[in-house]
Amino acid sequence: MNSINKLFLIYIFCSILLFETVKATVLNALAFSVVEEIQIYSYLINYFNDYSIKNNLNITLNLNLLTPKNSTVNRDEFFSLIDSFLQKKSNKYDIYFYDNIYTPKFEPYFLDLNKLLPKEHINLYKSIENYESYSYNNKLVGLPVIINYSALYSNIELLNKYNKEIPKTWDELLETGKYILKQEKIKNNTNIVIFNGLFADNEVGSVTIYEFLHSYRDAINDPFPDLNSPNAVNALKMMKKLKNELSSDYIFQNLENTFSDLLNGTGLFLKFNYLNLPVNKVYKATILPGHKNGISSTIVGGYNIGINSYLMKEKEEDVVKAVMYITSKEIQRRLITEHNCFSGINSLYNEYEVCKNKEELCEIYKNAQPIVRPTSKTNDYNKYSERFRYYIFKYLYGNDIVDPAKMLRKIDDITRIYYISISSKDSIAGKIIAIVYILLSIIILSSSIFIFIKKYNYNFSFLSKDFWILSLLGYILLIYTSFVDLERVTPLRCHLKFFLQFMSFTIVYIPIFHKLISNYPEENKISIWAKSHRYIFLSIFIFLDILINGLIFIQPYTVKTVVTIDSSKNFQKCKVGGLFSKTVMIVMVTYKILIFYGHVFFYLLNGILNQQYLIFVHAQQCILSTFYYQLFY
């Protein structure tokens, strides 16, 4: 009996153990780090797994960390890898740690954290929904795990040696750099790097360029300078001046040497990301200089955590627990104090215990003037970034005959949508076209006066006065169909143009069609009814136009952007919604073509069977040729 009890207890114990094992959830995360030694993902995973064990969550979070040491993947290839998983709707990974520049790209594939996380948790990250690095299309795509800010590392020993201060403007940096360079050359110190620039031909270079342009605002709260503005031109000129007078093409382009200079103390001013690794003690990190005192800039870099929308539904609750813990105040505090990383939780920088040993980090965060990269300007940010750098570097590393304003215009053309505008400051074409349309309208409307002059009654006997005026209004409406093409293309303008095109046809040609039917040589019920009910006859066609046009709104127009190659101009055009709308348009065009051939049919009958319609025939020849142009133009 005892042995049976023992076996039973063992069975119960094994069953419980098996049940608990089966019940445990395994989550998978994917991350990438350029430098394995400074990555923090493995720490975050370990923190969570320890927390899970202590609190009996029965959740295990596994990390697949890709680095140049264990794979051939680089930053761009890592993006492509994530993209391929998401395109295939793979649930291999539940959590992704991704570069925040890809938030717009990954938005369709990640869950909306607004719907999963408590509001008080999201509110820890102040103003997060205002940044495209985290939110897109009114959807919170990811929360920042770590944030990267740029900093200027200044060699305090050298500055003190020459009684100089850390520069707060680019002019001060230039002046101080030139002075110390001259003095060090006298002492045969040719190894010193005065300013590294960090204008490398990769994404780091794009970040530096964007920050430099942003630092040429006139006031702190001003937006990013227009690329065609004097501020942007002056920024490029200062870039080149700093390179020519303080540095060289090689130093400005070389990224690897900057890291060595930070460790060896061989630089005066070194621009770099604020590092979570110790650098030489001669350096003090501060915010970047600006065009004016008090103006600075930094790109909001870093990595977010996002949740795969294709994960298994039963894992969702556990994934949310993992994300909440990793982005919690407790863990983000540890990132600052233990790993020297920036967190996106603003309130942490007001805590004495956080900043007492991290004064430099806290000072930079509090005084930073952040901006995000223009990741949503195009569908392919990487390609945009490459072209952006190409034109800037063509000036920066080219000869002096390259015009900086021209290069900036080329960059602006990459994403600028061109259209004819009445209010445009760049061209008067819109104003000229508008004036021509208005003058034509006045001429057409003024011509109606001849209808009321007695000696011209014979010439206008074909239609009644009200139908003549209606036809003239139709021609004016036809002119204003082209007027809709002015200004930026919108779905509403697309609908309006389509409506005006076909309504103008109706108003111009249906009065004539009515005349053809009602004056048919052989009287019949239709011709008699049409002659007696001309307004009802006209109203039927107008009603059909409104009805058919209204059906288009079921699958409304969209706007398609046509991106041209090289330096051509991008533009937008109307795109018919879906198959239903295309079918409706085909029906509408077919309906108008039938009316067209109805005109031709009655024109031939009236011209051949009744010679009294000679005047009418001449009028129709002009009208039909106009309709042919309208239909096929």
Quaternary assembly: single chain
The class by helix and strand makeup works out as: alpha/beta
CATH architecture of the largest domain: Up-down Bundle
Binned strand content: 5-15%
Shape: elongated
Count of helical segments? 24
Distance N to C terminus: 99 Å
Topology record:
Elements: H1 2-23, E1 25-32, H2 41-54, E2 59-66, H3 75-87, E3 95-99, H4 103-106, H5 119-122, E4 135-136, E5 139-140, E6 143-148, E7 150-155, H6 156-161, H7 170-186, E8 193-195, H8 203-214, H9 230-246, H10 249-253, H11 256-264, E9 267-273, E10 283-286, E11 298-299, E12 301-307, H12 316-326, H13 329-339, H14 352-355, H15 359-367, E13 370-371, H16 381-396, H17 404-415, H18 429-446, H19 465-483, H20 491-518, H21 525-532, H22 534-551, E14 558-562, E15 571-575, H23 579-609, H24 614-632
Parallel strand pairs: 1-2, 1-3, 8-9, 11-13
Antiparallel strand pairs: 3-12, 4-5, 6-12, 7-9, 7-10, 14-15
Keywords: Membrane, Signal, Transmembrane, Transmembrane helix, Transport
Family: Belongs to the bacterial solute-binding protein 1 family.
Organism: Neocallimastix californiae
